[in-house]
């Protein structure tokens, strides 16, 4: 049937309007017939009216979504703590917050049992496989029947979440197993509350003690986050780790090479005066890109030398607390990049040729050699000479580790750690990786002894507290 004149003029074509137009056509047609009886005879054959059939789009409901996802959630209980977790692999791998199982994860060989309870009331034991204090994440293995296949959650994409998206959480608040609470995404990329400073999703769902570690789902049943915390000073404000970061963590702890820091592949020029093309757009702070590493994540995303980064994850850099201190702002950005996992996406806004351009960067992984220098800063609190084959200290940059001794160690070479020799940068990297794993496991404070040789050739052994 040809469109009528109103349709040709671009009138709305939604289903209910189409149905209303069809109904109006029937009524008006009847009126015309009635009015026409005084002037001319009615047609002998009735004109058939076409039937309009509307098919309503299937809208996912909370009830359906809960029914599809409940079996993937377990309530967790240790001797002193309660929380929840979500099955992410059919062999029985569960991810949760580390603080939910911290008393077990840090107990060593005498670790007490963890009980995992399903929605149908079944209980099985669970064992901690990986625990990371900085990320506040842990991976458990369910002790099911031999060869048992568990129902696992379908992972979504948290980078595509928008403010206002309907979500729901399933948890164990106050021991009330598999309780459901619903709400919306109130904000994305809130400053992180974990030691790794991971940006969080903000929710308005009702979250209580025991919800920690439980999943956050969308109405189509996809896992988009892991409930991590609530604001104790406010009602209706809660936070979740985005699933993209959780996915990166799982990939890092199960893949070869261990945990690698995120890498962008750029060099910043912190002492550069902000170009007028940037200030003309209303920005008063930015980070100038001095150079981009060929084939690295930044180049693949379209960044070039001379770009000025003015926004990170949608937040303006001139709104940061460090906005007026280029060195502090640069360090914040470096820490944010390192906190990502390879494969995560980092949204950047850059000014180029007087225009703000948006780039979504899929993060790369730090090389083995770069990871040594990163670990030296994070674990030992010192910066090493990147041009030397021997691990040579150039600066103390923090109060932790060797950093607490200050720059009196400048020029010293690290010879050994944990009672073992470090012949070169690569050898130190292996030892730092082992120490980093112990630190991130959260097994209390640790005293480590480091052997050094100063510029005059004198050897010494210094203790450091690692926590």
Fraction of residues in β-strands: 25-35%
| CATH fold-level assignment of the largest domain | Thrombin, subunit H
CATH architecture of the largest domain: Beta Barrel
Spatial ordering of strands, largest sheet: 1-2-3-6-5-4
Return the CATH class of the largest domain. Answer: Mainly Beta
The main sheet comes to: 6 strands, antiparallel, barrel
Supply Rg.
30 Å
Mean pLDDT: 83
Secondary structure class reads alpha+beta
- Helix content estimate: 10-25%
3D shape = globular
Task: Provide a descriptive summary of the structure in words.
There is one protein chain. By secondary structure, the protein is of the alpha+beta class. It has 4 domains: 1-57, no CATH class; 59-259, Beta Barrel (Thrombin, subunit H); 262-365, Pdz3 Domain (Roll), CATH 2.30.42.10; 373-466, PDZ domain (Pdz3 Domain, Roll), CATH 2.30.42.10. The protein contains 10 helices and 27 strands. The protein has helices at 5-8, 15-36, 62-69, 102-105, 243-254, 276-279, 297-300, 326-339, 368-380, 425-440; strands at residues 73-77, 82-89, 93-96, 114-117, 123-132, 137-142, 154-155, 166-171, 179-190, 200-203, 215-218, 222-230, 238-242, 262-263, 266-269, 287-292, 308-312, 315-316, 345-352, 355-362, 364-365, 382-384, 393-396, 413-417, 420-421, 446-453, 459-466. The strands form 6 sheets. The chain has a 6-stranded antiparallel beta barrel with strand order 1-2-3-6-5-4. Strand 4 and strand 5 form a beta hairpin. Helix 9 (368-380) crosses helix 10. The longest helix has 22 residues, at 15-36. The chain is globular. The model is unreliable at 1-45 (pLDDT under 50).
